[in-house]
Amino acid sequence: MSSSKGFGLRDGEQTADLPAQPDAGVYFIGRIHTPWRERKDCPKNARESDAVCTVELDPRWTAGLKDVGSCSHLVLLYWMDKAPRNLVLQVPGHYGVQRGTFALRSPARPNPIAMSVVRLLGIEGNRLSVVGLDCLDGTPLLDIKPYFASTDSVPDASVGWHSAKNPK
Ligand SMILES: C[S@@+](CC[C@H](N)C(=O)[O-])C[C@H]1O[C@@H](n2cnc3c(N)ncnc32)[C@H](O)[C@@H]1O
Questions:
Q1: Are 32 and 102 contacting, i.e. CB atoms less than 8 angstroms apart?
Q2: Is residue 161 in a domain?
Q3: How far is the CA of 150 from the centre of ligand 1 (A)?
Q4: Cβ(108)–Cβ(84) under 8 Å?
Q5: What range does the domain containing 103 cover?
Q6: What 3-state class would DSSP assign to 64?
Q7: What confidence score (pLDDT) does residue 2 get?
Q8: Which atom of ligand 1 is nearest the CA belonging to 104?
Q9: Ligand 1: which residues within 6 Å by Cβ?
């Protein structure tokens, strides 16, 4: 089991052997500054907090923010650097039921990529103020994309196991 800080292997959890080498590399394009230093204090998802967070882009990419200020919402992709990468079956603490990694939004996954749709408050130079994050202070940023409600929103989408647990 990976010894990533704060993640222990729970009963019912299963790991997979990771491949010997990764297939590709990524560039961290910045860091996300949030009020949260420990996982237990983080919101569980992007809508659980209205804290204003700061995305600090590596200055080499600042020109790429041209026209971003016209967007009300952005998709942020970030790298959950404190999560283990070898869990294939997980038992999330707040649900207590075994589920496949790919049925969960857990940060523990082979490529620990997280996503949130955030509300853009403003941009100053290489810094973006946003609302709608759930990650630790200092979490590496992978990408910024415009959120298109016209194509990204699927209002009738469902997650069966979750709706069964939380019937309307
Ligand atoms: C359930 S994940 C959801 C992430 C993202 N919104 C998504 O859906 O892909 C959010 C949780 O990941 C954990 N977390 C936050 N930052 C992390 C980091 N840098 N490394 C590992 N775990 C992190 C915290 O426990 C937080 O509550």
A1: no
A2: no
A3: 27
A4: yes
A5: 26-149
A6: helix
A7: 42
A8: 1
A9: 39, 42-46, 80-83, 105-107, 114-116, 134-136, 139
Percent of the chain residues past pLDDT 70, beyond the cut:
95
CA–CA dist 30, 56 (Å, integer): 5
Write the CATH number for 86: 2.40.30.70
Best residue among 3, 49, 113, 136 to mutate for probing ligand 1's pocket (most ligand atoms within 8 Å of CB) is 136
Residues 14-58 have pLDDT tens digits of 999 999 999 999 999 999 999 999 999 999 999 999 999 999 999
Mean pLDDT, the chain, whole residue set: 94
Nearest atom in ligand 1 to 138's CA: 19
- Residue nearest (by alpha carbon) to ligand 1 atom 19: 80
Position 164 pLDDT exceeds 70: yes
Report pTM: 0.94
Residues 14 and 27: their CA atoms lie apart, in Å, by 29
